[in-house]
Amino acid sequence: MEPTIQDVARQANVSVSTVSRSFTRPELVSERTRSRVLSIAQKLNFSISRSATALKSGQSLRVAVLISGHLNTWFNSTILEGFNEVFSRNGYDISICQITSGQARREFFEALPVKRNVDAVIVTSFDIEASEVSRLTSINVPILSLNVTEENGFMASVRNDDFTGGMVSANHLIALGHKGIAYIRSTPVASLRFSVQARLEGFLSACKAVGIKPMVLAAPATENPTSAVLAKLESMKTRPTAIACQEDALAIPLIFQLQRFGIAVPSDMSVIGYDDSRFAEDIGLTTIRQKPYDMAVSLAKKTLQLIEGNTPENRHELIAPTLILRSSTGTLKR
Fold it and tell me: The pTM is what?
């Protein structure tokens, strides 16, 4: 038979409400009494129901995280690790919602006010409409964003300055003497606008300032997108001397493909990535660093503050890009 809260109260010689408060409102119970209650609860293998705690507090103890793309990508898996570090320690579960289109996004925001089954919503990496933000704020559900280009009424946010990051990437290649430059991007979901678009816009802006018009190549949404990109490069009459990639996940396999076809990096072609993800250092990839784990931890702490009715001190964090110089970029050979 499962132990009950009455069993714990009887053995600890306290009331049932004292046992409940020992778990849910420890600040209202003396340290001595709470230690005795928890010790007996552990001995009996008793744990208070999360649903009962949620009912009493009026909270779901759940945070919705809206993510696009696969969960096993470096960025998504890393931010989830950061969120989990903070939320699980504070008794919250993460409800992951994969958003694959603008329609799916709209349906989420239309249904949530009726369900009211989360205490906060975090949007990651893609833009949403201002009306969707206001729909949640009207029912007092905090909505925050991670790496979303527009603040758009979010109660708090953390994001990389991707526009400046794109400029830094372009200016690095330009300073090395490169003029024949290509930019490789992923094929976007037509109905969603992603933060990575700002990287391309910053890159094009820096090139335009010095009269350079880079080639923009879209990597297809296939298992091996770099093969298709390489085929396009090989078919060009004048091959670029430098390539910037939207993310390391494109740059790393591209370097291996180039080397397989006898194109040396960086002596024949310079390659720069974006992320500083795992393996970037191992292969010597020059890249723009971002720290998704730290960003997620920071945003999760802001989320808890908002749930508790407090205003975070630094509501909107904009993180400056960092150029990480390694061996995959070099001076243009004359």
Answer: 0.81
Which residue ranges form the domains of the chain, and what is each CATH number? 5-48 (1.10.260), 59-160+292-319 (3.40.50.2300), 162-290 (3.40.50.2300)
Q: Report how far apart the first and last C-alpha atoms of the chain are (Å, whole number).
A: 82
Mean predicted confidence (pLDDT) in 148-174: 92
Residue 287: per-residue pLDDT: 98
Residue 162 pLDDT greater than 60, yes or no: yes
